[in-house]
Amino acid sequence: MRLALVILPVEDLAGAVAFYRAALGLETSVEAPVYVELRDEHGMRLGLYRRDAWVRLVGAPAASVPDGHLAPVELYFLTEDLGAAIDRATAAGARVLSEAQPRDWGDTCAYLEDPSGNVLVLARPTE
Questions:
Q1: Taking the domains of the chain in order of start, what are their residue ranges?
Q2: What is the DSSP letter of 20?
Q3: For the residues of 70-108, what is the DSSP string, one character each?
Q4: Which residue, among 68, 87, 67, 70, has the nearest Cα to 79 in the 3D structure?
Q5: Residue 27: which of 16, 40, 12 has the closest Cα?
Q6: How far apart are CA 22 and CA 62, in angstroms?
Q7: I want to staple 107 with a disulfide (CB 3.0 to 4.6 A). Which of 27, 56, 67, 123 is the partner?
Q8: Beta pairing partners, 125
């Protein structure tokens, strides 16, 4: 078994799609009225699902992320040029939560928040 896809329910589908295209350079691979799937050059897939439609699909209520709070999810992206990745993400609208610094597990990471309240980690192996 392998993880094939991560799907994030979002309030603003168009805004989330625009953010991830601009911040990470992801390309659209699937587009439907309530769902868009993005892909990188390595085949990593990220699905963005309009929250109200996702709730109907799974048949259970889902908590929204209140303003000023973070979703309990973290997306961890490896990059060769960490500075450029951080600049690109912040230019697209990400908010820096923790500046890039070496972490105990061997990566240098910056923690950011996307416009939907999800945590993005941009990382590279510490040299």
A1: 6-60+70-125
A2: H
A3: --S-EEEEE-S-HHHHHHHHHHHT-EEEEEEEE-TTSEE
A4: 87
A5: 40
A6: 27
A7: 123
A8: 107
Q: For 59, which DSSP code?
A: T
- At the topology level of CATH, where does 6-60+70-125 sit? 2,3-Dihydroxybiphenyl 1,2-Dioxygenase; domain 1 (3.10.180)
Task: Provide the whole-model pTM.
Answer: 0.91
Please give the chain's pLDDT, 127 residues, in tens: 888 899 999 999 999 999 999 999 999 999 999 999 999 998 999 999 999 999 999 998 888 888 889 999 999 999 999 999 999 999 999 999 999 999 999 999 999 999 999 999 999 999 8
CA dihedral 62, 68, 24, 77 (to 10 degrees): -80
Nearest-CA neighbor of 46 among 80, 70, 77? 77
DSSP-based three-state secondary structure for 54: helix
Q: Measured over all CA atoms, what is the biggest interatomic distance in the chain, rounded to whole angstroms?
A: 47
